[in-house]
Amino acid sequence: MKPMDIVTRSIIGTTRRACRQSARLMAWVALAIVAPGAAASDVTAITLVPQQVSAHGWFFQGEAGMASAQNKGFMSNAGFVVTSDGVVIYDALGTPALGEAMRTAIRKITAQPLRRIVVGHYHADHIYGLQALQAPGVPIFAHRKAEAYLQSGLSVERLAQRRAELFPWVDEKTRVVPPSAWLEGDTSFRLGGLTFRMIHAGSAHSPEDLMLFVEEDRLLFAGDLLFAGRVPFVGNADSSGWLRAMDAMIALDPKVVVPGHGPASRDVGRDLTLTRDYLLYLRKSMGQAVAELEPFDEAYARTDWSRFKDLPAFAQANRLNAWGTYLRMEQEALGVGKP
């Protein structure tokens, strides 16, 4: 490395650290102005109000768009089911404060104890609330395929990023809570007169996508396999597997579907249309570019995004989604990952 490169990298690194420190200082100053003398736990406290979607099921609906300090990281959904013998929670939202707010809100609905927690997938906006929800004797279920992510450096990098972006709601005390019960495939259990099916959707939005279906209520917690009213985050997801998972969702014939983002759906076929059509369009446009050996930047500029450009999260997610799909289509064209 040239001496000038070393100096430049040093300056950039120092500048980035200074910016992060400045952002944190400004956040604390703002909090002090809002609530002088208040403890951090008081200032970051959040109140959540769940929506009832079935006889036994409830969910918390996050705001549209991407996670930010403005929305306090509350941009995803989580839910819970109240039975005569305890509560089952699906997902945990994206900060410890949100997890604590979930616990408080559930206690206002029922005095039944928490029995199980099911994690749909280990993405940041669904898991950091676990540390506020975990309790002795309460298993946390997730699919075994999440283990690779947790053992990689990606989970550490993502947490560091969230600490910088969502401080003080995600800070140095925030940690990733791993599952205590790994699933290898589909399974079910009975609790308080209800039947719960934990269904692995295959490699789709993430390798470990896990749905929770409450048979008696015909209530499906679909996680990020369904985005309602916004552009989904695709990244490097297996979009072909995702499309297959949508067919599996429809086959369950649910009355209500709680998505990972957006309002609950009572018309699954209709509300799957946006996510399905977006994935198909990504695959078609980026697949054509790959087939014609067109560079990504040129393909992205050429593509007509007008149908989706006014949707929430388009500006933040669309280019990343297109790039991830471009790489995915290259892999498929080369037969990568096929037996």
Structure, explained:
The structure is a single chain. This protein is an alpha/beta fold. It has 3 domains: 3-40; 48-266, 4-Layer Sandwich (Metallo-beta-lactamase, Chain A), CATH 3.60.15.30; 282-334, no CATH class. The protein has 11 helices and 12 strands. The chain has a 7-stranded mixed beta sheet, with no helix packed on it. Helix 8 runs antiparallel to helix 9 (268-291) and helix 9 crosses helix 11. The radius of gyration is 21 Å and the shape is globular. The model is unreliable at 1-40 (pLDDT under 50).
Instruction: Note the gap between the termini.
Output: 41 Å
Strand order of the largest sheet: 1-2-3-4-5-6-7
CATH superfamily of the largest domain: Metallo-beta-lactamase domain
The beta-strand count equals: 12
Chart the SSEs and their pairings.
Blueprint: H1 3-34, H2 40-43, E1 51-52, E2 57-60, E3 78-83, E4 86-90, H3 96-109, E5 114-118, H4 124-127, H5 130-133, E6 140-143, H6 146-151, H7 154-165, E7 181-183, E8 187-191, E9 194-200, E10 210-214, E11 219-227, H8 239-251, E12 256-261, H9 268-291, H10 296-302, H11 314-334
Parallel strand pairs: 4-5, 5-6, 6-7, 11-12
Antiparallel strand pairs: 1-2, 2-3, 3-4, 8-9, 9-10, 10-11
Characteristics:
339 residues; 11 helices; alpha/beta; disordered N terminus; Metallo-beta-lactamase, Chain A; single chain
Summarize the entry for a quick read.
The protein is an alpha/beta fold and 339 residues long. The chain is built from eleven helices and twelve strands.
